[in-house]
Design a protein that fits this description.
single chain; 159 residues; mainly beta; four-stranded antiparallel beta sheet; globular
Amino acid sequence: MFIITFYSNFTSLQEVVNNENIVICEEMHNSYLSVRCDDKVFGVAYYCFGTKAQICFDEKHGLLFIGAGASFVCVSILLDKPLVKEELFSPFYEIVLVGEKLCVVCELEVFCFVAGVEAWRASFGEIISGFSNDNKTMFLEFFDGTKCDICIQDGGVSF
């Protein structure tokens, strides 16, 4: 079970989480959260662009994924340390779990992780306004009205 707690300032986060377990995502940060899993606690300091932070857990590989602000973090619960700290090109929207693939949808890009390793990435010049999937394909809509499909298996894009 995971418990997510939000804090009003960095000092409050430091009172709960050891500094070595805090991931500072952006130089300027205005939002703070901790994730507790059993006896382990991890913290994230990030800049919030208005979208809600989200976590996803890959139980098979013991990986905790956190999307927040313009950052994406992967923490190994088994190794008790962060594995990936990715500063995103655009603000984070949502984590979408499709089988063993974890797709991260951002304002201008979509990327996919398998077992904590990036498998593919697709970037766009238009802002993504909507998305869905059928477990094989991710369907994207953009604010300018165009649409495209991304093959979840290999990241191939077709307009």
